[in-house]
Prior knowledge:
The structure holds two protein chains of two kinds.
Chain A: H1 2-19, E1 28-32, H2 39-55, E2 59-63, H3 70-76, E3 85-91, H4 93-100, E4 111-126, H5 134-143, E5 149-153, H6 158-170, E6 175-179, H7 182-190, E7 196-200, H8 201-206, E8 211-216, E9 241-248, H9 254-268, H10 271-279, E10 283-287, H11 289-310
Parallel strand pairs in A: 1-2, 1-3, 5-6, 5-7
Antiparallel strand pairs in A: 3-9, 4-7, 4-8, 4-9, 4-10
Chain B: H1 2-10, H2 13-31, H3 37-48, H4 53-78, H5 87-137, H6 140-157, H7 162-177, E1 179-180, E2 187-188, H8 202-220, H9 237-246, H10 248-263, H11 269-283, H12 295-319, H13 325-336, H14 343-348, H15 350-384, H16 387-406, H17 409-427, H18 432-458, H19 462-467, H20 470-488, H21 490-509, H22 529-538, H23 543-563, H24 568-594, H25 611-631, H26 633-647, H27 655-679
Antiparallel strand pairs in B: 1-2
Amino acid sequence: MRKLAIAAAMAATLVSTQAFAEYPEKTINYIIPFNAGGESDVSARFQQPYLEELAGQSFVIQYMAGAGGAQAWSQLNGMEGDGYTIMGINLPHTILQPMEKDVGYETKDLTYINFFHYTPNALFVPKDSEFQSLGELVEYAKANPGLVTLSGSGSNSANHLGQVQFDELAGITTTYVPFSGTGPAVTAILGSQTTGGFNYVTSGVNNGDGMRMLAVASEQRVKAFPDVPTFKELGYNIVGGAFRGVAVPSSTPEPIREKISQLITDVNNNPEFQKKMEDAGFVLTDISYDFINDFVAAKSEEYREIAEKLGIANR
Amino acid sequence: MELLGYLVNALTPLNILMALGGVILGTVIGALPGLSATMAVAVLVPFTFTMDPATGLIALGAIYTGAIYGGAFAAILVNTPGTPSAIATTFDGFPMAKRGDGSLAVTLATLASVVGGLVGGVFLLLLSPPLAKVALAFGPPEYFWLAIFGLTLISALSVGNTIKGLLGGCIGLMLAMVGVAVVGGDIRFTMGTHMLLGGFDIVSALIGLYCIPVLIDLVATPDPHLKVEQGNRGIRLREAFGIAWESKFNVLRSSIIGTVIGVLPGAGGSIAGLVSYSEARRSSKKPETFGNGAPDGIIATESANNATVGGGFIPTLVLGIPGTPPDAVILGALLVQGIKIGPTLFSQQGDIVYTFIFGLLIATALMLPAGLLIGRYAYKSIASIPKTLLVPTIAFLTVVGSFAIHSNLHDVQMMLALGVIGWLLNRCGFAPSPIVLGLVLGQIAEQGFVQSYLIGNATHNLAGMFFGRPISLAIVALAAFTLLYPLVFSKRKENAKKRALDAARSYADSQGSTTVGDVEPVAKSGFAPLAGLKKQLAKPRDHAGMFLSVLLIGVAVWAFAETSAMTPMGSVFPSTISVAIIVMSLMLLGLNILRKPAGPEQGGDADNSSNARRVALVIAMVVWVAVIPMVGFGIAAILAFLILGRVACYEHMSAKRILGEAVGGLVIVGGLYLLMAEVLLIRMPTGALF
């Protein structure tokens, strides 16, 4: 039955793809719902030349920052669904924001196309910190509840979720100190203002030798930091961070959605692109259009559990 | 000597061309309020990928420094900071322009910006690694105290009107709290709307609070916008050099303050400008002239904000932490190019870094001729353009600028609303600057406070956190000094006041209203308690002030009630501010009840200004903003242009002139539309038409 359905779907795709065979025929606007210079922007910039080469059209990156991305996402479905407007999209943002409050969109209203990478959370301490390993930090935190301060970007963010999970799984109490962005949060670690901090692996690449990465919240070790163990290796089942991908207005036709997803997957398969992204600390994923709704649903459940612990699952 | 080799590298024709082109483009973008350095830099990033890394960086750095400088033009000529860095430039720049010293002000700003930029660049060249340590030594308590220090400037800005100034500051702080809180994640004061989730954008608030009042008063009288100078005195370069040379210590001090504050990620040009302004005023022999067109005010702000460019690159290049938002974009560009940031950058990729730094210095130096030329042209066109064209152009710029920030009409609506409210508040004696100061510093103060509290509480060292750190203590001492200075030196102030009175009289004769400098000259500093109180009581009863106090008490009570549903982290600041607002409003109310009722002559504006035209302008702009989503951006702008031209028209115009101005309007609207949609790649709203 299932096979038949897939076959039918494939046949349908084949037929309808014909009608949109020419896509893309003009410039594609790639909207980033954050300010320039952040991880979303940088990864889109990495994609840009490869996308342009594959599609034979230019991709124009535009910025629509505001309310942690909500301003752009709440307007996405009002935009033209002809495939020439695509928008960067992030998890856990688009799950947690509507879970917490009415932000003008719902998680299920958005049309996710492809998540092409994620930046795992990692636990950092300053270079001259007394803690050489995660074990030492956990021991110290056990002996001194609350004394360990961990910086991160914002409240109820991916970083914050990482800290909450860590506290629970390690049976410790640490103090989370929210900062107004990745930059200030990293500065607090570098300057030893806090004991350490949860931040994205990409920050470790940028800030050279100023910080020591104790553990990373990915399934496997990150290529840019082969010597840093994962939380899983150390016995804590923490895998998390921010996923980034692309979404389109809900009126975009199916064949175009698949074409865009394919374009992004093809870029992800380019070895040169892979190397650039991995050197910068990004971890490539391949969550294409066929799987993406299941993925978002699974993540929603996972995040709801943590959100309930944080007391922010209001809706 | 190795360094000189890099200088030679930087001197290729292409690099110089990039530096010059970047500075010119940056200056123009910076001069247009709402269009920011970040935007220009972000748009140019992809082009730099095709260039040699050092050349690309030079182009980006040149745009950045040009934009910070360009912000001064709008500040001086239309009382609206082109970028937040130029907030303090409006304090004295616009009064100077009003009295006919516009070109002198522009030239002074240029000289100060060039010197400030060079000082910042030299620090970047020679002292980057040690200065980067400053960025790390600045923790949450230091940011908190720095913000408080910035807020002390309110007392200086509102001499004689201290309660209203402080209330204004609290209003600004409260506005800064609106939206999703960074610390705590609470949703505050959005009244259930999506529009306010992102909070009040500082740039759109700046445009609204500073520029809309100028527009409203511009249409009310047939008088020209700026007083035209007697005779053509050119750019007054020699005179400006003389003034700047006399203020060399001010230039140097401000440049160093600017560099150091630029090094701090999260502070930036606006705070650097405000702090240097405050320091320049405190150490000046004539502090009373500040706010009434003191050249030293412009010099301090402009040298400081351009010094932040070099300073901001220090943490960016040494630590990989962007010092300012444009730095973040440049950092991203470096990352995409595969250049590894960090302490090793200077030793391993010295050719790129040092070539870039020399390129930045060259670009800064090129700002002198380029800026003087653009400044001369900008001043001339603003001073000579007829009102029928000037009013719609400025109005168009406010709409375009506030839209451009996030490609969002909400920002335009907020800009307009804040502008009208700001005008009304100004009429009641609440100047816009304290509000803006509160808005700019509110987030920094709150985050610094809550973070310090969290860390101090966790480590059981709260007192040590706030009062036990050397840098913090130094900032606290400076803040206290700034606050108490007028009290300690009240004698000197007394004499100064007399001079101020004369200065203000001549200033009043030269037509000055609705500006920051509009402080009441006869008033007494609020710090000599008894005498001050007597003077305060001697004033006639201020009915508008009383009405506003009641209104503010209402709002503050509502805000206080709202905080009960927030997390402790998210509520501590807003609840404190609401209490402060209630207390100060009650004081203002009490003061006014004790005063004698106003005499009949206190009817307000018995002048020849036309309130009908003011209302017409506001209505036209509200309708304009409302119809954009329906008819489209371009067509709405052209229609509004024609209507606002009529609102501002006082003379009979020949058909030829009407036609000419209509064409001029089309060119201005079309040109800016293209600049935004095609050059800066901003998403423009589309309606039925275009």
